[in-house]
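Fold this sequence, please.
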Amino acid sequence: MTSRQNTTVSTGHLLALFTILIWGTTFVSTKVLLIDFTPVEILFFRFLIGYVVLILIYPRSLRTASFREECLFIGAGICGVTLYFLIENIALLYTTASNVGVIVSIAPFFTAVLAHFFLDGEKLTRRFLIGFGIALSGILLIALNGSFVLQLNPAGDLLAFIAPAVWAIYSVFMRKIGQLRFHTIGATRKVFFYGLIFMLPALFLFEFHWELGRFTSMTNLSNLLYLGLGASALCFVTWNRAVNLLGAMKTSVYIYLVPVITVVSSALILREQITWVIVIGAFLTLFGSYISERKAHNLNNKNTNPRMG
């Protein structure tokens, strides 16, 4: 790699790390907001705030060249905004923020499988599958922790397990969008637009209220702004940029840090109990993920398109 390419790759890694540090704490903010807001309310207000901010930052329109390109944005909006976060927020109603944070860390595995079939230069290896098995055992151990301490609902863990599969589809869409070389902020704003459009039916299917009195609480307002400004408007831009620079598989490696950040922040802020089962499960998840991605990381370095870093 040239020095310019090395700088591009380093920028991608820094953006991914910054994003995941913020996203690892969003489960805590969402858990706090669930006291006064329903899952769909949090989702709608969060991305509405993010969308308005992105319009103010980048007001120029973004035009696609074909209906196929437009479908990429539609698919990314449905998967990365509407479905993923709705499933994740509902899961938080039935299980702890720590559990959700650890279980969604399986996202890189789903991403790698889809990338293998739909993206060039991102292939599965035997080492990856071995690591997947180790990490999956850790995730299942964490989910079973609910049976030991008798405080969790398996439905929440199951929903948390489905969410990363949806996120993997979003990652593939964003990789393809990145190859079209649209402005990152404009592309992210367009994804938010479709996410909000397809979220509208959920406002009628689930409990939704426009009670403005809840926004007078500093706790509610600060957490919504944190999710809308930081975790949505800012972090979706930085994450999508990282995917453009590094590729879907290499960027997804940083999701492995989510359980560590979530478990620590949940213990400090929500006073959630960290049991030895969670500790062992988190270790197996991270260790297995590390093993599976080492080979994939090297493979990506050889096959990544130079213009993408």
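The mean pLDDT is 82. The chain has twelve helices and no strands.
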